[in-house]
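@channel sequence for tomorrow's demo:
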Amino acid sequence: MDKIDFVISWVDSEDSEWQKKKQAYSGKKIVNSSNGDERFRDYGTLRYLLRSIEKYANWVNHIYLVTDHQRPNWLSTSNPRLTVINHQDIIPAAALPTFNSNAIDFCLDRIPGLSEQFVYFSGRLKM
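structure tokens (generated this afternoon):
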């Protein structure tokens, strides 16, 4: 069986540093995630997604969490099957910072060590 990796994009729109950066580049006041832009809202599902992968998809080769220098405070990076990838690791410097999920998607193939076959979980999906 070929190796299959999981790639998860994630952003914490409640992070004040992220809000300052987005505001500086967008010119719009960012108060919090309730500003109506659901694309950046953290619904708290990352923890449950990771737990579900561990419980029901333990066959996964590796998990890559793609984010802009953010980490949930509960996340332990001691698991050797989890790697946090910062945008700067895969996106050309001239294109940073980016808040466009399509721009991030186009650079996923630059993740070091990513298997040829992978499943992408986009933070844009809501249930």
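heads up for whoever presents: Residues 16-26 form the longest helix (11 residues).
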